[in-house]
Automatic annotation (TrEMBL):
Ranges annotated as spanning the membrane: 20-41, 88-109, 121-144, 150-167, 261-283
GO cellular-component term (any): plasma membrane
Bilayer topology annotation: Multi-pass membrane protein; Peripheral membrane protein
SMART domains named in the record: AAA
Species for this entry: Aeromicrobium choanae
Family: Belongs to the ABC transporter superfamily.
GO biological process terms held by the UniProt record: peptide transport; transmembrane transport
UniProt name for this protein: ABC-type glutathione transport system ATPase component, contains duplicated ATPase domain
Signal peptide, first to last residue: none
ABC transmembrane type-1 domain span: 85-283
Pfam family, one: oligo_HPY
Compartments where located: Cell membrane; Membrane
Length: 896
């Protein structure tokens, strides 16, 4: 069975190419007419006599002498159309160019700097925008045309009147895009290395908001033609004796329309239509042509291949990775005889691409899920686990080809094949019998709808119930998933909830109709350990109470050990092993499974190398690089609210050669403290010293000389690298800001940095989207170390990486840190990672530093209850140990 649509996709690509060529051809045609008008037009645009001095006469129909006929005044229509093209092109170019040169810089500066300047410009632009565009053009035309004369003056006046209309459009679009982009991590990364404001505006912000400019410019070009024609038609356009203009010709042709004289109005009107059509078609394709994010390196690369590339960072040895041998697949206690499967997959195969080349993302996958069973599907990014689940739900793009079987067993003997169903056939099944919990709740929830509305929508999609009854049920569901104060928060918007609370809402939507199967795709990724533990408890509770089968897709082996009954291990689209959870962790059969488990950091079982089996020890006598003294950071509250204190009187030091692990839940203030350390956030009070010199309170200009001493590795490598810059430019930026190296020397240094992070030199010419997550994080590390900084701030640098990729990045980080001896503040919520690499550990809670000491002391013998609760919430990759810990927590709750 296959998804329909491959032929349709190919036809759409062919249609898109045709439209591009058509638009390009029309634009070229009118450009040629404009440039070569004196040579193409048989007569001058106002000429009414031939070379022999004889009048052409009036209202001549098309003939050999006048192909388009003549106007009422005797002028040649073809000549006026050709010269009208020159007028139109001149006005378009002037209006679009001048308005963009004014509106774009104003939008950049206004959006980036904000403040009084932003408010003033907004007021002016809104005032201009409130005028009807044509009325504003007429007013401006009257004002500016008084002092202009001749063809050039008339065209300039028309261009100015249209420019005034376009400036607010460019300003508003660029300003709003700038406000959004200026908070992106790659802009912060540029600030950290000391990039000046003009370069940030034009190299980092404009390059990422300018993708809208081709579309705006082409729309404005179309609007310019129509506005120019309207001005000419109404008599406010260019002086008729100064230049030919199509709108004026349409006005003069109106009386002819009632006398069956069609040619005087047809050709100017057709010219307007064709120019607008050509510009519009061309504009729709410009973004695709100029956008490096759409660039691929192989003509036959499909979507599946892009996913498979993400497995390049596996830390297992090549002979393990390349192994095609499949371990014996253990039956889970003969499920068929124990209980009937609710979902059965067999020989599932998914490929992406076109007939020119297809890439297999899932190859022959098959497994069963029984009622009330939790089956974990694990593997690296690109292994095909998410593609498998989306194939079952019918959520793959139309470029996917799906074969095989996915049978949903419901009450009685009902048996339905999901593969091959149309969206209309799947709609009553999705959410009712099989539902999905998505990885990122922030993007899975509609930001403009309340969470209650979204739960109600899920209920009423499958149940005949009133809004009041559905709302009451929504509150029950939110209470069931543990959302605090559900009667009040049912009317909250997603942005008013924390990440864990949003995930609970997503789960409430998934269970709204009590489905037989829930597919949970990375439901705890990037969540704090305490929030993660609560979500896992919720899933287990739902399984116990509702008998729901759960397909858990994850790369977190601690989560697998905690709640899974059976594990399916996937690698490059195939199942290499599946077994009951105890058997798989105790005796993994396949080399890939063994390598995967070996890569998992395990709290309490630190193992860095054979020479250093216990991890880094606390340093003695090393110089202080970072000194934070009594730091307080407050953010203004809303209307009538007090200020929010994110960091509350925190003091700590980081020494040369030391890694200080800073841990705590989201909202504890640890990332804010990291931003304070490098000047991205000024403290409300307190002192920041780097290398003994005070940097707190300095302006960006005064802080710039110190920037070479900082390095910053951000949490999300995809968003911390400018997508419009090549890898070479990303890594080279600190070198170009702080050194006088030549381009050749910069390139040589970048090659050396790529080598230090174990990446090929040819990666320098790639763009960030062409690399896997682990590769991008290595690029971020190379950029942070480009100037050999004294201090490195690493803010959750491995939270979004697969375990084996994380393992390689951490090994590389430790190797570089021990060789270069920089001081590092390592911010994370993963205590197992901290146990692997930190000399000391600092624990933050609600903005305060609650515990600070050597790693062994804080993680083995914590003094604070909060630290103990964090440690207890960390799932360890050992199902036997996890069951023991769950039993202990249960005893504590029951008072046993």
């Amino acid at each position: 069975m296959r998804y329909p649509g491959r032929t349709v996709i190919q036809q759409s690509h062919g249609l898109q190419r045709f439209m591009l060529l058509l638009g390009f051809g029309l634009i070229v045609l009118f450009l040629v007419l404009a440039i070569f008008a004196p040579w193409i037009a048989p007569y001058d645009f106002n000429q009414v006599r031939g070379e022999d001095g004889v009048l052409f006469g009036t209202q001549q129909p098309p003939s050999a002498d006048h192909l388009f006929g003549t106007t009422v005044g005797g002028a040649d229509v073809l000549s006026r159309v050709v010269y009208g093209a020159r007028t139109a092109v001149e006005v378009i170019v002037l209006a679009v160019l001048v308005s963009s040169l004014i509106g774009v810089p104003l939008g950049l500066v206004s959006g980036y700097l904000g403040g009084a300047l932003d408010k003033t410009l907004l007021l002016v632009m809104d005032a201009l925008y409130s005028f009807p565009s044509l009325l504003l053009a007429i007013v401006v035309s009257i004002v500016v045309s008084g002092g202009s004369s001749g063809a050039l003056g008339g065209i300039a006046s028309a261009a100015i009147s249209i420019t005034v209309i376009f400036i607010p459009q460019y300003y508003r679009v660029i300003r709003n895009a700038t406000v959004s982009v200026k908070t992106e991590p790659y802009v912060d990364a540029a600030k950290v290395v000391g990039v000046r404001t003009p370069r940030i505006l034009f190299r980092h912000i404009l390059s990422n908001v300018a993708q809208t400019l081709p579309v705006i410019a082409t729309l404005n070009a179309s609007e310019a033609i129509l506005t120019l024609a309207a001005l000419g038609f109404l008599g406010f356009g260019i002086e008729p004796s100064a230049a030919a203009e199509w709108g004026y010709d349409l006005n003069k042709a109106m009386p002819d329309a009632t006398n069956d004289i069609w040619w005087t109005g047809l050709y100017p009107g057709l010219a307007i239509v064709l120019v607008v059509l050509g510009v519009t078609l061309m504009g729709e394709s410009l973004n695709d042509i100029t956008n490096p994010l759409l660039r691929t390196r192989a003509a036959d690369k499909g979507e599946g291949e892009l996913e498979i590339e993400l497995a390049e960072d596996l830390s297992a040895a090549p002979e393990i990775i390349d192994s095609t041998e499949t371990a014996p697949i253990s039956a889970p206690g003969s499920i068929e005889t124990r209980r009937t499967a609710v979902l059965s997959l067999s020989d599932l195969r998914v490929s992406f691409g076109t007939d020119a080349g297809r890439v297999v993302a899932v190859d022959g996958v098959g497994f069963d899920v029984a009622p009330g069973e939790v089956v974990a599907v694990v593997g690296e990014s690109g292994s095909g686990k998410s593609v498998t689940s989306r194939a079952v739900m019918g959520l793959l793009p139309s470029t996917a080809s799906v074969d095989g079987s996915a049978v949903l067993h419901t009450s009685g003997d009902a048996r339905r094949e999901l593969i091959g169903m149309t969206p209309q056939e799947l709609r009553p099944i999705r959410g009712d019998e099989i539902s999905m919990v998505f990885q990122e709740p922030g993007t899975a929830l509609d930001p403009v709808r309340t969470v209650g509305w979204q739960v109600v929508e899920a209920i009423r999609a499958h149940r005949q119930t009133s809004k009041a009854e559905a709302r009451s049920r929504a509150i029950e569901l939110l209470e069931l998933v543990g959302l605090p104060d559900p009667q009040k928060r049912v009317d909250y918007y997603p942005h008013q909830l924390s990440g864990g609370q949003k995930q609970r809402v997503v789960i409430a939507i998934a269970i709204a109709c009590e489905p037989d199967v829930i597919v949970a795709d990375e439901p705890t990724t990037a969540l704090d350990v305490t929030v993660q533990a609560a979500i896992l408890e919720l899933l287990l509770d739902l399984r116990s109470r509702l008998g729901t089968a759960i397909v858990l897709i994850t790369h977190n082996m601690g989560v697998v050990a905690d709640i899974a009954d059976r594990v399916v291990v996937m690698y490059r689209g195939r199942i290499v092993e599946q077994a009951p959870v105890d058997q798989l962790f105790a005796h993994p059969a396949h080399p890939y499974t063994q390598a995967l488990l070996e890569s998992v950091p395990h709290l309490g079982r630190t193992h860095v190398s054979e020479d250093d089996p216990t991890g880094p020890a606390p340093l003695e006598g090393a110089a202080v690089v970072l000194d934070l003294e009594d730091i307080v950071v407050e953010f203004p509250g809303g209307w009538g609210e007090t200020a929010f204190r994110a960091v509350d009187h925190v003091s700590l030091q980081v020494h040369r050669g030391e890694v200080l692990g800073l841990v705590g839940e989201s909202g504890s203030g640890k990332s804010t403290l990291g931003r304070v350390a490098v000047g991205l956030q000024q403290p409300t009070s307190g002192i920041v010293r780097v290398g003994g010199e005070t940097i707190s309170g300095l302006s960006d200009k005064d802080l710039r000389p110190y920037r070479s001493r900082f390095g910053f590795v951000f949490q999300d490598p995809a968003s911390s690298l400018n997508p419009r810059m090549s890898i070479l430019d990303c890594i080279a930026e600190p070198l170009r800001v702080h050194t006088d190296l030549s381009d050749a020397q910069v390139t040589e240094k970048v090659q050396s940095l790529l080598d230090s992070v174990e990446l090929p030199s040819d990666f320098a010419e790639r763009f960030p989207h062409e690399l896997s997550g682990g590769q991008r994080q290595r690029i971020s590390l190379a950029r942070a170390l480009a100037l050999d900084p004294d201090l490195l701030i690493a803010d959750e640098p491995t939270s979004a990486l697969d375990v084996s990729v994380q393992s390689r990045v951490l090994e590389l980080f430790l190797e570089l840190q021990q060789r270069l001896q920089f001081a590092c503040l390592f911010i994370t919520h993963d205590l197992a990672v901290v146990d692997t690499l930190a000399n000391r550990v600092a624990v933050m809670q609600r903005g305060r530093l609650v515990e600070l000491g050597p790693r062994d002391q804080v993680l083995r013998q914590p003094a604070e209850d909060y630290t103990r609760s964090l440690i207890a919430a960390v799932p360890v990759p050992d199902p036997v140990e996890q069951r023991r810990r769950r039993a202990e927590r249960g005893d504590l709750l029951t008072g046993a």
